[in-house]
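Quick one: structure tokens for this chain, please?
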Amino acid sequence: MRQSGLTLLEMMVVLLIASMALTLGFQSLGQWRRADAAISGITGETRQMALTRSWLEESLRSLTPVEPTVVTSGSLGRSDDSGIFQGDRQKFSGLSLNGVLSARGGSTQVTWQVHRQDGETQLQLTENEQTLTLPLPGIAEADFGYVDRQGRLHAQWPPALGLADQLPSTVALRLVGSTGRQRVWAASVVGILNPIPRLYESDDE
């Protein structure tokens, strides 16, 4: 009787096919893992950018004007401008009712600043001596601009010439990507732009 089985040649062919299948499988697995890591990185960066934008816009919408107070020293008096909004292309500071690092609902001194470190562009938020650094991945340049109620854009606030409201109507952050593509984050102040004038003096004063 003739015995059934595989010859040496047939066994070698089977092993060759199996090794090719394993090689292709490992290559596909490696490509999938690299693609998954890249997608996870993009998703994480996108989530971070969305969170940064949300915090910045909330802080801007809740800006509130401040009435300067007079600090007396002997017979002399000077105006205390702490908390009054001021800004240039690199940073701005003022009072916000919607703090990120502090309890919400109270007036909080906030400062947002464009910061460069190790070739990366970042946003730094400072509230009540607490600092939070927020990366802006893929951004080569960033600068602030200030829009008045007539729609004119200014590089600083208050503007260099003319009368202006204490708060700008809108604050914009221009972002320039490493490829030269530009985008703008902007938010308008929800409340009033100037302090309410006092109609009477209290007895304590």
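The helical segments are 8-61.
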